[in-house]
Design brief:
328 residues, alpha/beta, seven-stranded mixed β-sheet, four-stranded antiparallel β-sheet, 2 domains
Length: 328
C-alpha cells in the first residue's frame, strides 16, 4: 500500500482557479482520485499530519528537534532543545511576514553568526549548535517545564504573518529573546535576520510512537526525520521505480509543490506537478485499481482511492478539480 503526502497539492488551487482561471493538467491525479473516498483528518500541516498518523497527540508539542538532532548529529541530545532555524522576515505597514524561501548560509556563515548570538545567549543559559548550516538548534534548561514555549512548525509559518504564530506560553520571555536575536542579526550580510523556534523536545527520548508503515520514502529531511521517529527504514528516491514497494505499507512524502504554492506561482507549480505525475502518480495507478493508494496534501483530509466496480473496469474514470476542491 502507498500513502502519498503532498503538501501544496490542493491548498492554492481554489484561489488560483478563481483569480487566474487556472486549471491544472494532472490526468494521473484525477485518475487516482476518481471515485475516491474522502476521510477527514483532525490536524493540518505537514509535520502535524505525519506525527498524528504515528499516534502523537495533536495537543502536544511536536518532538521534531529531538529526532532531527539525532539525524544531524548521529547521537541523542543531552539537553532540552528546540529547532532554531535561520529565516528572513519582511516588515510591512501592519505585519511582519516570514519569507517563504529560506536562507542558505554556508558553514562559515553559520559558525560566525552562532558565535555572535551565543555570546548574548549565555546569560540565559542557552546556546546554539548545528551540524548542517541551515538547521540550527537552541539548547538549554529554559526549554523544559513551565518556561518551555509552545511553537508552530516552520512549514506552517512560511509566507505567513508571524504575529499569531510566535511562541506561546511564557510569551514575554521568548518574544523578548527573539527580539534581541533580531537586533543582533539586523546588519549581517548573510540574508538572515531572525530565528524560527519550533519542535521543543526534552533530551529524553519522546514516548514511543506507533509505526504504521514498513518504510518512509522521499527525498527530504522531513522524510528522513519521520523514518527515524517511526523506527522504520528510509528509502531515498526521486521516483517510484527506485523504491522497493511491492509489498507492505509505505509512506511517500513529496514536498516539491510546497514552495511554488507558497510563492503563488502556478507555472512553476505545474512544472513540478508534471514531474511528480511521471515519476510517482502514473506508476501508482496499478495500486489504485486495487484500492491500495491514499493521497493527502496535509490539509485536514485524505483521499482513499477506490477500485472501480467490476462492471466499470473498461471505463476510463477521472475526477475533476471542482469535485476535489468542493469536498476538501
Amino acid at each position: 500500500m502507498l500513502e502519498f503526502v503532498v503538501p501544496g497539492l490542493f491548498q492554492p488551487l481554489r484561489l488560483w482557479r478563481s483569480d487566474f482561471a487556472f486549471e491544472p493538467a494532472a490526468p494521473g491525479i484525477l485518475r487516482l482520485c476518481a471515485g475516491a473516498r474522502r476521510v477527514a483528518v483532525p490536524v493540518r500541516g505537514l509535520e502535524n499530519t505525519l506525527f498524528a498518523a504515528l499516534g502523537h497527540c495533536a495537543d502536544d508539542e511536536l518532538p521534531i528537534a529531538y529526532y532531527r538532532y539525532c539525524l544531524d548529529f548521529g547521537v541523542s541530545p543531552t539537553e532540552p532543545l528546540v529547532c532554531a532555524d535561520p529565516v528572513w522576515m519582511r516588515s510591512g505597514i501592519d505585519q511582519v511576514t516570514l519569507n517563504a524561501t529560506l536562507p542558505t548560509p554556508d558553514h562559515a556563515a553559520a559558525t560566525q553568526l552562532q558565535a555572535l548570538l551565543n555570546a548574548h545567549l549565555a546569560q540565559d543559559g542557552l546556546r546554539l549548535v548545528s551540524q548542517h548550516p541551515q538547521r540550527w538548534y537552541l539548547l538549554g534548561s529554559a526549554l523544559t517545564g513551565e518556561t518551555a514555549p509552545r511553537t508552530v512548525p516552520l512549514s506552517q509559518a512560511l509566507g505567513q504573518s508571524v504575529f499569531a504564530l510566535l511562541p506561546q506560553q511564557n510569551r514575554r520571555y521568548w518574544h523578548r529573546l527573539l527580539n534581541e536575536i533580531q537586533m543582533l542579526l539586523h546588519d549581517n550580510p548573510h540574508g538572515i535576520n531572525a530565528l524560527w523556534l519550533w519542535g521543543v523536545s526534552d533530551c529524553a527520548q519522546p514516548p514511543g510512537l506507533t509505526p504504521r508503515w514498513d518504510s518512509v520514502i522521499g527525498n527530504s529531511v522531513t522524510a528522513q526525520t519521520l523514518a527515524l521517529a517511526a523506527n522504520v527504514p528510509y528509502q531515498a528516491a526521486t521516483a517510484l521505480a527506485q523504491t522497493d514497494y511491492a509489498s507492505g505499507k509505505h509512506l511517500v512524502i513529496l514536498e516539491d509543490l510546497a514552495l511554488p504554492a507558497l510563492g503563488d506561482n502556478p507555472t512553476v507549480w505545474q512544472t513540478a506537478l508534471d514531474a511528480l505525475q511521471t515519476a510517482w502518480f502514473e506508476p501508482a495507478l496499478a495500486y489504485a485499481r486495487n484500492g491500495q493508494v491514499t493521497l493527502s496534501s496535509a490539509d485536514g483530509c485524505e483521499w482513499h482511492c477506490q477500485p472501480p466496480a467490476a462492471w466499470q473496469f473498461w471505463q476510463p474514470r477521472l475526477a475533476s478539480w471542482a469535485q476535489l476542491l468542493e469536498s476538501a
